[in-house]
Design a protein that fits this description.
Length: 133
């Protein structure tokens, strides 16, 4: 294996995956990351580099990266620490996406009363709420 293939097989631009790898003890490489602009991407991308395995030898970086990209790996390895971390971070992403899809509520206070009105409420609905305040 040459140096370039080793680096590319233990590197990721997915920051959640990078966090998961560090959580099981995979050390960042001597040069832990680079920030890349251009290369057909919009803005900037960070690429994280890792050692090939954990210091204890229990976890192999390439195997865990492959596990991250396998949608069913955690089902076959439910008690593996990486499975818990992977599921937690993926669930976090889903929760954040759900919140982004929701319509925020405006909190309006008048005369000691509080109303929560969806920001996409019709003018008639807003008037109805505001009349009771």
């Amino acid at each position: 294996m040459n140096a370039v293939s080793h680096i590319s097989s233990t590197a990721t631009s997915n920051t959640c995956l990078a966090a998961a790898l560090t959580a099981v003890g995979i050390p960042l490489a001597e040069k832990p990351f680079v920030r890349v602009v251009g290369d057909g991407i919009r803005g900037e991308r960070t690429v994280w580099f890792f050692d090939p395995q954990s210091p204890c030898g229990k976890f192999q970086t390439k195997e865990l990266i492959a596990a991250w990209h396998d949608d069913t790996w955690h089902l076959a390895n439910p008690e593996h620490p990486f499975a818990y971390i992977k599921c937690a971070l993926l669930n976090r992403d889903r929760l954040v996406d759900k919140v982004k899809q929701d319509v925020p509520l405006a909190c309006i206070k008048r005369r000691g009363k509080i109303a929560f009105i969806p920001l996409n409420a019709s003018p008639a609905t807003e008037d109805l709420f505001l009349r009771y305040l």
